[in-house]
Amino acid sequence: MSLPRYRCNCGGVLDAEVSSSSQQLDNTPDAATGSASWQRLFDERASRLATWPSRRGNALLDASGVWRYRELVLPLPERFVVSRPEGNTGLYPVGTANCGSDRPGHRQIGLYAGLEDFFLKHEGENPTGSFKDRGMTVGITMANLLGAKAVACASTGNTSASLASYAAQAGMRSIVFLPAGSVAPGKLAQSLAYGATTIQVRGDFDDAMRLVEQVCDELSIYLLNSLNPFRIEGQKAIAFELLQQLDWDAPDWLVLPAGNLGNTSAIGKALQQAYRLSLIGRIPRIASIQAAGANPFYRSFMSSFASREVVEPHTVASAIKIGNPVSYARARHVIEMSDGVVEEVSDEEILAAKGVIDRAGIGCEPASAATLAGVHKLVARGIIKGNDRVVGVLTGNLLKDSVTGIAQEIGSVVVEPHIDAVRAVLS
Ligand code: F0G
How many CB atoms lie within 10 A of CB 4? Predict the structure, then answer.
């Protein structure tokens, strides 16, 4: 494999762009054909989801919530693609006015947020339990095309789980670098179970990131952090899919947790693309939410991006415990382009929001709850209006971190195996 490059001569990250000539796959519409034919095409593909394993042709591509949008992601024939398939995650109406009287549990989330028209997009419903699968299917596909034998990443736990799973499917070796002691047990277990060489670095995520870049260069291993632009291309599909679920009626706001800033970058890029193709009539404002103890992007935002900040990160939301985000420049562009905001939330606010999502029966990991904590705060500050239409992204599954915030939420009792003991508890 010839050595790919991930950075520009200036040290910045690179973007992938699909050239207009390669958009003519499968006789699909071009930009000039108009938005209706694109929408029809994506709807038609989605409608075939249930029967994909028994069909030939592009069945797997159509069934994937990433490759369904392949002309906007990476136009490739199915034989090159490594897919589970992924995506097709739930979009839950949870606002006080849009959740319906049959979901009083979910309505509690709308009450907490202070929003009438509110949706949660649960990316924890992806094959390995986080949104990372969307970028990883494209990243591993690219590794496959390049003939890579080994792939690697640094991770706070979700990227590594996803990388290990997709590499196993493709028959590649995977190597993951994790900050020792800072990865939730469920995520660590996934990497080990899927067979990744798992290296725990005595340091934080940013140390692991520095090491993996060096190792990949030295040993010609394909790097699959979101530094890799093809990961970003796949992650864009979160936005395409949620817009399709809203029948291409763009919300006022899109809110998501922010760590390494790959997701903010990807979603912003997707919205711009959808707007250019007239799939949506306006670009939603993006709100990126950071943990207060790991808030370099928030600090930069507060100085109107006059300086790029770096912090030593501390937060219970281990997935976003990052002090020096790789995709800073991409994400800054997204916030400026969408008239967006960056907010910070304390660990207490994150755990309170997690309690609300968990008890509604939906559940998520702590970093994902930063979304609701951020919405709650932005509504209270009057930045998001109570009647705005808002979509929040939940990035990871509850089972990823079955410890943080759960013990103090519910607690459980152990009883002797006698009915009297049970009666005593229930009375
Ligand atoms: N939520 C979860 C559950 C995550 O795992 C991450 C990032 C984020 C939010 C933040 O997304 O980095 O694109 O801004 N997890 C990475 C990982 C860092 O290694 O799994 P981001």
Answer: 16
Of 79, 73, 108, 75, nearest to 94 by C-alpha is: 108
DSSP string, 270-311: HHHHHHHTTSSSSPPEEEEEEETTS-HHHHHHHTTTSS----
User: Does ligand 1 come within 6 angstroms of the Cβ of 182?
Assistant: no
pLDDT tens for each residue of 148-164: 999 999 999 999 999 99
Q: At what angle do helices 132-145 and 158-170 cross, to 10 degrees?
A: 40
Domain spans in the chain, listed from the N-terminal domain onward: 91-127+232-400
Decide whether any atom of ligand 1 lies within 6 Å of the 261 Cβ.
yes
Q: Is 262 in the pocket of ligand 1 (CB under 6 A)?
A: yes
pLDDT (tens digit, 9 = 90+) per residue, 43-76?
999 988 888 888 777 899 999 999 999 999 999 9
Q: Are 53 and 266 within 8 A, CB to CB?
A: no
Pocket probe for ligand 1: among 133, 187, 320, 400, the residue whose CB has the most ligand atoms within 8 Å is 320
- CA dist 358 and 369 (Å) reads 9
- Mutational test site, ligand 1, from 153, 156, 371, max ligand atoms within 8 Å of CB: 156
Those residues whose C-beta lies under 8 Å from the C-beta of residue 150, and which sit 6 or more positions away, are 172, 173, 174, 175, 219, 221, 222
3 state DSSP class of 223: strand
> pTM of the entire structure?
0.95
How confident is the model at residue 25, as a pLDDT? 47
Ligand 1 center from residue 235 Cα (angstroms):
11
Say what the pLDDT of residue 5 is. 85
**For the chain, how big is the Rg over CA atoms in Å?**
21
- Angstrom distance (rounded) from CA 399 to CA 403: 9
CA–CA distances in Å: residue 225 to residues 144, 222, 260: 16, 10, 10
Retrieve residue 104's tokens: 């009083």
List pLDDT tens digits, range 161-176.
999 999 999 999 999 9
What is the Å distance from ligand 1's center to 282 Cα?
27
Half-sphere exposure of 107 (CA within 13 A, CB side): 9
Q: Does domain 91-127+232-400 have CATH number 3.40.50.1100?
A: yes
